[in-house]
Amino acid sequence: MNKNDIKPSEATHFPELALNLITREEHNISRKQISDNALKVLYRLNSAGFDAFLVGGGVRDLLLGHTPKDFDIATNATPEQIKKLFRNCRLIGRRFRLAHIMFGRDIIEVATFRGHHQENTQHIAQQSKEGMLLRDNVYGSIDEDAERRDFTINAMYYNIANYAIHDYAGGVEDLEDKLIRLIGDPETRYREDPVRMLRAIRFAVKLDFDIEEETADPIEHLAHLLKDIPSARLYEESLKMLQTGLGLETYHLMREYQLFQPLFPTISEFFTADYSSKTEQMLDLVLDATDQRIEEGKRINPAFMFAAMLWYPMLAKADELMATRNFAYYDAVMEAGNLIIDEQVKTIAIPRRHTATIREIWQLQLRLPRRNGKRAFRLMELNKFRAGFDFLEMRGEIEGEETKQLAKWWETFQNAGRNMRQAMVADIDGANPKPKPRRRRNTKKKANSAS
Ligand code: ATP
Ligand code: MG
Question: Which of 22, 286, 337, 408 sits a CA distance of 20 to 30 A from 367?
């Protein structure tokens, strides 16, 4: 390899990583803790003559005594060689080519060791002028692969051949010190892939680690680089940040590092120094509720979270439309909803099925106060009624008495039997008597059924 072929940034920012080998006797990982499917893949690769390692979160979490979310595998077999070994294999990805070995719903991800980039490999590796990696399919050795990983604690490899752990970047020590530390020069590594800033926050919260100083320092200054990340990737990432059980804490840490703003610019306009705006109160409520639901093993819907996060920014926009363009309230809310969602999906690609639900939840907020006649009974049959009601309850916490009373009414109504429900509606009908139809003869039928 000719040294002159290496880009200056690539040549200088990786320190020589020193391998620390931890033998089977010196660590606590046992094969029993690794899923059968992951073991199958590791052994098959190994018996075909390839190196095969468990790597990343799997090793990190096992060393910490946690149950890993999934098991990632790294090997010196190329994707094509992997495909030949497994019938149930699919090759995926452009930016990173990966093999997915499918065991029903369980997917084991197998990555070929990645190498460094050189000028003459531009067709397989590509960098933008900001230093961001656009394509990254240069294969390499295991130590090169280690240098390309993000944090020291994510660059530990469990070797299926002898059950030793290869620690290339001092991950074991950082695990003990509870530190999130980038491998290499932090600024360069963030510029290569700005999502690493989000990952630093995510792991700090998830593992309850500190972010090492040099890894933390450049974040605020580079946070704006997230604007260049494709919105589909940021959608996936935002769910991992906010919808996996520690959303509230993650959001607060994201804000401290100025990382929330580039993902949610419209929401951030309503941020205050003392976290007191309605938008901020709603963020706290919905993220806390989401964390609790996950803790209780209940289902969660991203649409509910996004609907809550965007509700007050949407209402502010509706106010503006009423003031400047003479919109009626209902139309203003609908139009503001469109505008706010259009704006949000520019940075976070919320899928259509979810944006439809967001609109439904918002629309229900306009309908829930109107309970006369058969309305309340009909509303309760709607698919999204429960979400709309939960949403109303959160609003009650923020907006005060009138909304709170309305939420109470709906709670009682849902729990009541048929007679009680009818009495509750009769109360409302009594308070707002139906206006007499003006043209009795022609509209008699309509007036009875659609009030
Ligand atoms: P978890 O799955 O628990 O969220 P993880 O560390 O396994 O954590 P993954 O996203 O599954 O995270 O990635 C697997 C491994 O791939 C990481 O541990 C890390 O070594 C490497 N990796 C992932 N994303 C990046 C990135 N953006 N830059 C460099 N390395 C990365
Ligand atoms: Mg993982």
Answer: 286
